[in-house]
């Protein structure tokens, strides 16, 4: 008697294990722990920045000189094209975080008990070149749109580009109140956007393995969740920079590096260490 061939049940399809939400790229920026801040913190950051400057004054003065030279160059351009100078002042604010990378490196080494090195501060960006380039491109696009918007405000307010012959006083004449209001509103909007996405982004990129998008979103989330303290910090930075610019930009020799060091301490106070992020906490 012939036997029927033995039937084989089809193998059950392999079931892939679900990917934990904490490792999904879209969830990463929101898994980073942000610390609670209070209104006294910005002044603590400034005090810490001043201490770092005093511990490495030579490096700080080098970067302060870079800030001052940028200011002198802007004044020179103002003699020939005041409209473009006001627009390019956005670039002055844009370059600040990148120049501060060396200062962040100094503060990080002092925090670790290491000795700061001038050469290392100059090349602090070299291991994060790709990420820095992407983030810099984002800031550059915002600055270019800001510059274009500034020129449009000029053209609409004065029925063309006026010739101020290098006189800033003519620009802020009370007769130009509509221009002053419009230009201030546009400038505040774009300055706020740049500040929101960069307030802790650059030190975060330097300090940990992250990408430009995660760093920018983390910075934006910090500003949205704790707007009061971050507004105070932004206003403090603005006030100190304006005061430092008044004596021929010479105040930036000290104020610039102190703010750079302070920005590092702002990042360390606001963003929890990687070990405290949910994806790094063992079950």
Please trace the helix and strand order, writing H or E for each element: HHHHHHHHHHHHH
Poorly predicted runs = 1-27
Mean pLDDT: 79
Estimated helix fraction: 55-70%
Can you count the helices? 13
Distance from N terminus to C terminus (CA atoms, Å) equals 61 Å
**Shape call:** globular
Number of strands: 0
**In angstroms, what is the radius of gyration?**
25 Å
Number of domains: 1
Strand count, sense and barrel status of the largest sheet are: none
Look at the helices and sheets and give the structural class: mainly alpha
Q: Proportion of β residues?
A: under 5%
Describe this structure in words.
The chain is mainly α and 283 residues long. Helix content is 67%, strand content 0%. It has helices spanning 28-31, 41-55, 57-78, 82-99, 101-111, 118-122, 129-158, 168-171, 177-198, 201-207, 212-225, 227-245, 252-270.
Write the layout of secondary structure elements.
Layout: H1 28-31, H2 41-55, H3 57-78, H4 82-99, H5 101-111, H6 118-122, H7 129-158, H8 168-171, H9 177-198, H10 201-207, H11 212-225, H12 227-245, H13 252-270
Helix pairs in contact: 2-13, 3-4, 3-13, 4-7, 4-9, 5-10, 5-13, 7-9, 10-11, 11-12, 12-13
């Amino acid at each position: 008697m012939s036997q029927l061939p033995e039937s084989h049940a089809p193998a059950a399809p392999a079931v892939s294990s679900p990917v934990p939400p904490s490792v999904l790229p879209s969830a990463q920026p929101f898994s980073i722990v942000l610390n609670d801040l209070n209104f006294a913190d910005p002044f603590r950051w400034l005090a810490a920045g001043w201490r770092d400057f005093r511990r490495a004054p030579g490096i700080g003065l080098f970067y302060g000189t870079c800030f001052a030279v940028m200011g002198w160059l802007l004044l020179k351009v103002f003699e020939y094209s005041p409209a473009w100078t006001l627009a390019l002042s956005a670039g002055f604010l844009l370059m600040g975080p990148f120049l501060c990378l060396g200062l962040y490196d100094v503060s990080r080494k002092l925090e670790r008990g290491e000795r700061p090195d001038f050469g290392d501060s100059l090349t602090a960006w070299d291991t994060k070149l790709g990420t820095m380039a992407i983030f810099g491109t984002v800031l550059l696009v915002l600055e270019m749109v800001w510059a274009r918007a500034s020129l449009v405000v000029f053209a609409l307010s004065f029925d063309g580009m006026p010739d101020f012959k290098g006189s800033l006083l003519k620009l802020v004449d009370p007769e130009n109140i509509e221009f002053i209001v419009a230009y201030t509103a546009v400038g505040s909007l774009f300055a706020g956007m740049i500040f929101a996405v960069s307030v802790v982004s650059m030190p975060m990129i330097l300090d940990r393995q992250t990408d430009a998008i995660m760093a920018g979103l983390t910075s934006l989330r910090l500003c949205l969740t704790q707007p009061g303290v971050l507004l105070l910090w932004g206003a403090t930075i603005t006030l100190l920079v304006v005061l430092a610019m008044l004596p021929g930009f010479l105040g930036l020799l000290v104020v610039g590096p102190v703010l750079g060091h302070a920005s590092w301490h702002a990042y360390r106070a606001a963003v929890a260490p990687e070990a405290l992020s949910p994806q790094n906490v063992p079950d």
